[in-house]
Amino acid sequence: MSNQKLFNVAVVGATGAVGEQILRLLAERNFPIQELKLLSSARSAGKKLQFKDREVTIEEATPDSFKGVDIALFSAGGDVSRALVPEAIKHGTVCIDNTSAFRMDPETPLVVPEVNIDKVSDHKGVIANPNCSTIQMVQTLKPLYDRYGISRIIVSTYQAVSGAGASAINEMLRQSREVLEGNAVEPQILPVGSLPVKHQIAFNAIPQIDKFVDNGFTYEEMKMINETKKIMGDESLEVTATCVRIPVVYGHSESVYVELKQDFDIEEVKRLLADAPGIVVQDNADEQLYPLATDAAGKLETFVGRIRRDLSNPRALNLWIVSDNLLKGAAWNAVQIAEYIAIEQQ
């Protein structure tokens, strides 16, 4: 990337799992930074984090923190974004928000760069990063949508505990030790920290991510449904989702059934996916080659395999999609948007 213009950048939620990945990517990709601000809660203020060859002191995030900031990347939770994004916009800051706070706001672009990067220019100060499980699915389905059209999507997710934060990772590891040692397990966090009933995640699968809404779906499932339609720009899409938490640390996996509007050749489908930006096809049954969360962890790409024509509907496909939920599902998608903004302003 050209360094003709340097940007004052803020990372809000710098000490969190996604914030750490954002900082790593900004450093590794030599994002053109003039001044870097690391913003977090009051309890983290004063601590130092390493960025390239220097230490940066964390500051408490306040409305005045954004004076002179060109681009701010938010990953500190919806309440923080709702409170501080409007304040940052007043200072002329372009905000890239990783939370759900603005995703369904009709004025806010909801962007996956490989799908709808052109929407960035429509922003009014904030660009929303979609839900992690939505990102990898729409990124994969976009070339198929463009070529054949899509009428219906049925997705079941198998989501890593890191999606619920560092405490959920520690909870899973603690529970696993308890089970292996023959001790009683006392669940404390999952499926939802603020709800009274907790379930064991070790050696288990929990079919609840986020709270339930009146229609029997969870907020996570409704995010996938609504965000997919918005990103694809197609309210006629029929989408349904079941989201499940499994005892994997990093990497969301998805089983996706998709009905296309036209007949297709399966080899052409594989070529379209292989040629799509950011997609890696791993699909060889003879060699038992297919995407695995353990292989996707730490990688920026989205992986797709088990590509096959449905047996009951000749215009339908079944796919298996895997990606690192903290990278393409969050930090990398946000940094891609920031890079696009920086290039546009060079």
From TrEMBL:
Transmembrane segments: none annotated. The keyword NADP applies. Substrate binds at residues 159, 245. Phosphate binds at residue 103. It comes from the Bacteria. It catalyses: L-aspartate 4-semialdehyde + phosphate + NADP(+) = 4-phospho-L-aspartate + NADPH + H(+). Keywords: Amino-acid biosynthesis, Diaminopimelate biosynthesis, Lysine biosynthesis, Methionine biosynthesis, NADP, Oxidoreductase, Threonine biosynthesis. It is an enzyme of class 1 (oxidoreductase). GO terms for molecular function: aspartate-semialdehyde dehydrogenase activity. NADP(+) binds at residues 15-18, 43-44, 162-163, 325. It holds the Pfam family Semialdhyde_dh. Its EC number is 1.2.1.11. SUPFAM superfamilies: Glyceraldehyde-3-phosphate dehydrogenase-like, C-terminal domain (SSF55347), NAD(P)-binding Rossmann-fold domains (SSF51735). Residues 8-123 form the Semialdehyde dehydrogenase NAD-binding domain. The active site is at 132 (acyl-thioester intermediate), 252 (proton acceptor). Pathway: Amino-acid biosynthesis; L-methionine biosynthesis via de novo pathway; L-homoserine from L-aspartate: step 2/3; Amino-acid biosynthesis; L-threonine biosynthesis; L-threonine from L-aspartate: step 2/5; Amino-acid biosynthesis; L-lysine biosynthesis via DAP pathway; (S)-tetrahydrodipicolinate from L-aspartate: step 2/4. Catalyzes the NADPH-dependent formation of L-aspartate-semialdehyde (L-ASA) by the reductive dephosphorylation of L-aspartyl-4-phosphate. Belongs to the aspartate-semialdehyde dehydrogenase family. Homodimer. This is Aspartate-semialdehyde dehydrogenase. The lineage of its organism: Bacteria, Bacillati, Bacillota, Bacilli, Bacillales.
